[in-house]
Amino acid sequence: MMKVIILVLLVSLLIEVAICVEGDDQNWSTTEHEEDLHVNLGLGKEKVTRLHFYFHDILSGKKPSAIKIAEANNTNNSPYLFGVLFMADDALTVGPESTSKIVGQAQGLYGSADQQELGLVLALTLHFTEGKYNGSNLSILGRNGALQSPRELPIVGGTGLFRFARGVAVANTYSYNATTGDAVVEYNVSAIHY
Ligand SMILES: *[C@@H]1O[C@H](CO)[C@@H](O)[C@H](O)[C@H]1NC(C)=O
Ligand SMILES: *[C@@H]1O[C@H](CO)[C@@H](O)[C@H](O)[C@H]1NC(C)=O
Ligand SMILES: *[C@@H]1O[C@H](CO)[C@@H](O)[C@H](O)[C@H]1NC(C)=O
Ligand SMILES: *[C@@H]1O[C@H](CO)[C@@H](O)[C@H](O)[C@H]1NC(C)=O
Ligand SMILES: *[C@@H]1O[C@H](CO)[C@@H](O)[C@H](O)[C@H]1NC(C)=O
Ligand SMILES: *[C@@H]1O[C@H](CO)[C@@H](O)[C@H](O)[C@H]1NC(C)=O
């Protein structure tokens, strides 16, 4: 008799566990067809925005915009400074001059990630502070072959008016001072978003 009761309890416990798991499963995620997505999320049609600006990566002076935050103990033995990591808060301006109007900041990390040639890994937020896109952000994540011009960097997402963005940034070194490491880079960004 006792055995039967225990068995019944055990079976009902198992069923309950199974229901719980199934219930959790059902409520954990939902998938919608893409054609309905923009309607359900209150988004409009997809459009393309093109942005043109200059990126100022300044290592020299009293107030550098990018600073070295880490390196490996053998980074200096590597011709491409493999292992070095910088944190940047670089101005984005309309023109190439340092006094040109600022439209945003590029904030984040870049580091040397290639031992065979100069290849940086970039994880940057382009945070815009002017005009229509003031307060909206785009994210860049990818490889930057900094000695090649032009080079392409992937736009992997965005916020604000750039919600659900994807796209590409084409970069071209405008000027580079080998003594100081200061660089100005021209960017053309094409971002698809809603
Ligand atoms: C959980 O999933 C069930 C079945 O799909 C659904 O009826 C219920 O509304 C969902 N509950 C929540 C809170 O989303
Ligand atoms: C560099 O770091 C590695 C790994 O921690 C260590 O084995 C090596 O001894 C270090 N070399 C020097 C020169 O400090
Ligand atoms: C951008 O937005 C911030 C926060 O809303 C505001 O303080 C600032 O004045 C705006 N800048 C411009 C140029 O509109
Ligand atoms: C964009 O980035 C800035 C700075 O990191 C942040 O303050 C702001 O909330 C971001 N905007 C959105 C819409 O997420
Ligand atoms: C950006 O686009 C302009 C206009 O098409 C072009 O003159 C310039 O060379 C481009 N720059 C880059 C870095 O692609
Ligand atoms: C590089 O920077 C140094 C130090 O500020 C300056 O003396 C030199 O003229 C610069 N070189 C170029 C090509 O701008």
Automatic annotation (TrEMBL):
Q: Which domain of life does the UniProt lineage start with? A: Eukaryota
List, alphabetically, the InterPro entries matched. Answer: Allene_oxi_cyc_Dirigent (IPR044859), Dirigent (IPR004265)
- Biological process, per Gene Ontology: phenylpropanoid biosynthetic process
- As given in the record, the signal peptide range reads 1-20
Q: Name one GO cellular component term.
A: apoplast
Give the keywords, sorted. Answer: Apoplast, Secreted, Signal
Q: Where in the cell is it found?
A: Secreted, Extracellular space, Apoplast
Q: How does it assemble?
A: Homodimer.
- What is the role of this chain? Dirigent proteins impart stereoselectivity on the phenoxy radical-coupling reaction, yielding optically active lignans from two molecules of coniferyl alcohol in the biosynthesis of lignans, flavonolignans, and alkaloids and thus plays a central role in plant secondary metabolism.
Q: Which family does it belong to?
A: Belongs to the plant dirigent protein family.
**This protein is called what?**
Dirigent protein
Q: Which organism is it from?
A: Coptis chinensis
Record lineage = Eukaryota, Viridiplantae, Streptophyta, Embryophyta, Tracheophyta
